[in-house]
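Mitochondrial substrate/solute carrier: structure, please.
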Amino acid sequence: MSGTELDEPGQLKRAVIDASAGGVAGAISRMVTSPLDVIKIRFQVQLEPTATWALKDSQLKPKYNGLFRTTKDIFREEGLSGFWRGNVPALLMVVPYTSIQFAVLHKVKSFAAGSSKAENHAQLSPYLSYISGALAGCAATVGSYPFDLLRTVLASQGEPKVYPNMRSAFLSIVQTRGIKGLYAGLSPTLIEIIPYAGLQFGTYDTFKRWSMVYNKRYRSSSSSSTNPSDSLSSFQLFLCGLASGTVSKLVCHPLDVVKKRFQVEGLQRHPKYGARVELNAYKNMFDGLGQILRSEGWHGLYKGIVPSTIKAAPAGAVTFVAYELASDWFEANLT
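Here you go.
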């Protein structure tokens, strides 16, 4: 047996490390970015137009309009805890989601590279990185989707609450739409996650590769560097995650809006927050996109894009940095 093979970590150990590090990274990222996520969801499930040109011709006035005004309204009406509404199902979702995502990602990359070592994964072509990310995203989405739906339902409501807790929301969804209602919006989610996860992981690996080339080139030319290295600092990992999260979110946002509408259709909504999405309001994803475009314009497909973009950058950065650090810690301490 070769030395390289002896150095390969056991597949079970590697899977545990990736799943554990992914779960820790996802939980930290969700806690940090929850306020922006709540604001984004409030915009996305709101049927009333928010564009300035649309408001002039519409009798329907939106409850939420503008990032700072919405932040102030939520804080005044719901207090600081309002920004973490739906956080329990969000954490219950994000731990299995991120764990599955990173475990599948590592498995696919290991298969493609013929090695489970991270340094070999860094040499994969961008195309394989994109494909690996897309497959990992799909697997993670299917495994955690009901929690994602419950998070949306709870985060979209203000005060007074229609659903006091996750259990009441779960029972209402099952009674109204059946068990399949827990997977409402799964189709646009899977279609969204392919380019989103592909772009996120593909661009992250691309930015990492560029940064490693930069490090090797400039550290080797530095007279003060006696041991040039292409290893990345935590700040560089942060920047790579920030850039990848921003790019992927900007491209895929319209599908996220449609997904949120499917998730809340037919459910109760307090009148002070505007009209609710009626049951079976959209025949399918394309019909949903068309209806939103006709009634709310292009702006409707990008509702919540500002908090979403602001959130995507730190979310991606925090997730990847936390994953890299947690993975190193688990690998060093797991025997």
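Notes: The mean pLDDT is 81.
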